[in-house]
Design a protein that fits this description.
Layout lengths: L1 E3 L9 H5 L5 E4 L2 E4 L9 H5 L5 E3 L7
Antiparallel strand pairs: 1-4, 2-3
The protein binds iron/sulfur cluster (2 copies).
Length: 62
């Protein structure tokens, strides 16, 4: 699954723009992924300039 490292994220919104199923929700200083909508396409992982989006196992969620 995809997870966001909030320590790295600067809430720029780049990942929101590339997420076709609109699974990423960005509010002021907060970001969340709707795992029901996420298709694991990894577009956000590729697009994030800070490496804050990562594919992780269930055990590694942060
Ligand atoms: S692209 Fe990266 S830094 Fe920008 S909001 Fe998304 S996770 Fe955060
Ligand atoms: S992996 Fe794809 S569907 Fe899931 S949050 Fe990232 S861009 Fe959206």
């Amino acid at each position: 699954m995809i997870a966001v490292d909030r320590e790295l994220c600067d809430f720029c919104g780049t990942c929101v723009a590339v997420c076709q199923p609109d699974a990423i929700f960005l509010a002021e200083r907060d970001i969340r992924i709707d795992l029901e909508k996420c298709t694991d396409c990894e577009n956000c992982v590729i697009a994030c300039p800070l490496g804050a989006m990562r594919e992780v196992s269930d055990e590694d969620r942060f």
